[in-house]
Amino acid sequence: MDNRYKPDASARMRKLYRLAGVSLGLLFILQAALNISLRLTFHAKTSDFEAMIKNLTEERDELKRKLNIFDNYIQQRWVYFKHSFYYISSTTKSWPNSRNDCLQRGADLVIINSKEEQEFMRRLEGRTWIGLTDRETEGTWRWVDGTFLSTSYWITGEPNSYEDKNEDCVEIRNPESEDSWNDAPCTYEKLWICEKTVAF
Ligand code: MMA
Ligand code: CA
């Protein structure tokens, strides 16, 4: 009676072993897959992280560089306002010499091309040369960068080339007022204001 069941029993065992084998095989494959995918994920996360660190380091260096530039200007008495640094002189010079001083500082006499910038000029304390002249063609006002004057802030009655005195350079005469420009002889000695635009 036992013998009758023996073949059956061993067949069942074989089936069982095969099942176990297949299961182990599957388990192995699953484990390998998991292993690989974890590694890949980890690797991806690591390189993400590394990229982020690299980015932050670059940003930090860029900020340091800008701060350095800023610091240098501030130490040399420049004032920052809307993407430009401004240098207000403490002595007086003719318009050409004023312009030369600005050029030597890597800047030029101020070019006023916004209402805000004109408002900013209110902090001046006395007659100050700006970068506007009609020395090349009488009556054609041009900024030091060669652009033609569009929006202007002349004092009423100016420019007048007063008594044909060859008033070819422009000063801010009464900084406290909205309209403050006057044409004056370029040889007169006045304060001056330089502007250096920076791309921040
Ligand atoms: C001064 C001089 C001129 C200006 C007149 C305005 C007397 O001359 O600053 O440039 O136009 O004043 O009265
Ligand atoms: Ca004048």
Molecular structure report:
- With 200 residues, the chain is of the alpha+beta class.
- It is built from 3 helices and 8 strands; from the N terminus they run αββαβαβββββ.
- Strands 1, 2, 3, 4, 5, 6, 7 and 8 form an 8-stranded mixed sheet that branches.
- The radius of gyration is 39 Å and the shape is rod-shaped.
- The termini are far apart.
- 19% of the residues are buried.
- The model has no long low-confidence stretch (mean pLDDT 94).
- Methyl alpha-D-mannopyranoside binds at residues 158, 160, 162, 167, 182-184.
- This is CD209 antigen-like protein C isoform X3.
- Residues 46-73 form a coiled coil.
Question: Helices, strands, pairings?
Answer:
Layout: H1 2-75, E1 78-81, E2 84-88, H2 95-104, E3 108-109, H3 115-120, E4 128-133, E5 142-143, E6 169-172, E7 181-184, E8 191-197
Parallel strand pairs: 4-8
Antiparallel strand pairs: 1-2, 2-8, 3-8, 4-5, 4-6, 6-7
The structure holds methyl alpha-D-mannopyranoside (MMA) and calcium ion.
Calcium ion binds at residues 158-160, 162, 167, 182-184.
Overall shape: rod-shaped
Q: Which ions and ligands are bound to the chains? A: methyl alpha-D-mannopyranoside, calcium ion
Order of helices and strands: HEEHEHEEEEE
**Major β-sheet, in short?**
8 strands, mixed
- Please compute the radius of gyration using only Cα atoms: 39 Å
Strand content: 15-25%
The count of domains is 2
Number of helices: 3
Low-confidence stretches: none
In total, the number of strands is 8
Please identify the structural class as seen in this structure. Answer: alpha+beta
CATH topology of the largest domain, by name, is Mannose-Binding Protein A, Chain A
Mean pLDDT score = 94
CATH uppermost class of the largest domain? Alpha Beta
CATH superfamily label of the largest domain:
Mannose-Binding Protein A, subunit A
Helix content: 40-55%
Oligomer: single chain
The CATH architecture designation of the largest domain is Roll
Termini Cα gap: 97 Å
Coiled coil: 46-73
InterPro entries: C-type_lectin-like, C-type_lectin-like/link_sf, C-type_lectin/snaclec_domain, C-type_lectin_CS, CD209-like_CTLD, CTDL_fold
Protein name: CD209 antigen-like protein C isoform X3
Domain C-type lectin: 81-195
